Amino acid sequence: MEYRQLTEQEYKDLQDRILYEDNHLLIVCKRAGEIVQGDKTGDETLCDKYKAFIAIRNSKPGKVFLGIPHRLDRPVSGITVFAKTSKALERLSAAFREGTVHKIYLALCVAAPEQPHALLENWLLRREEQNKSYIVKEGKYRDAKLAKLIYTYLGSTERYHLLQVELLTGRHHQIRCQLSGIGCTIKGDLKYGAPRSNPDGSISLHARSITLPHPVTKEELTVLAPVPCSWKGVSGLLQTRPEAPCTIPGD
């Protein structure tokens, strides 16, 4: 099978964004605006880019296998996991489904939360036609799903406020919807109430770290992604106020 020929710069960029790789896993840093897998736009996917990269790097004439056990929304940046074998894909998909994968996000918000650390629990209803989720009352809608996350306020830049978020469930637009529900809309997220968009169409939500059981060795693996360069002041903020371990308030 033939893959698209990458330019030298594209090849180097993809190489530089690899955070972890072995015979079973490929973990990379997705840029905001990239799509992980195909959608109605027909735009080239991050998965296809890395298939082309592996085909060139490994001089592989046949088809490159890269499975997708999870995905990030297009305007979100950060850690993305691919499986390099069908067995790894099956086991990783099960780990995501069963909740043994722990994901930490950073969110740059337009307002600071009233509480510096809290567990948020809401019932979310997804509206497919709008590609949006809403917080609803428990029991009002049969299709609503319970969403849980823990956030910690890490500090503020000149204009925005940084939260660390640990997902306890994996619902559609969960972080975006739940943070908006407490008045902490994510910078650039017009869909959930931000006053203005980001110049590149992104939202300031970043998949910062992931901890998962290796699909073959079963050992716990933790991978960290660098903060986007466009997040002015955040790197310095994290140096003075390191990210905290996420614990449920009251534990």
In short:
With 251 residues, the chain is of the alpha+beta class. It is built from 5 helices and 10 strands.
Explain how this protein is built:
It is a single chain. The chain has five helices and ten strands. The protein has 251 residues and is of the alpha+beta class. Strands 1, 2, 3, 4, 5, 6, 7, 8, 9 and 10 form a ten-stranded mixed β-sheet that branches.
Compressed to H and E, one letter per element, the order equals HEEHEHEEEEEHEEH
| Unreliable stretches | 246-251
What sort of overall outline do the alpha carbons produce when their principal axes are compared? Answer: globular
* Secondary-structure-derived class: alpha+beta
Roughly what fraction of the amino acids lie in strands?
25-35%
Average pLDDT confidence is: 92
| Tally of individual helices | 5
Major beta sheet summary: 10 strands, mixed
Cα(first) to Cα(last) distance is: 53 Å
Oligomeric organization of the protein chains: single chain
- State the helical fraction: 10-25%
Gyration radius, in Å: 19 Å
Count the strands? 10
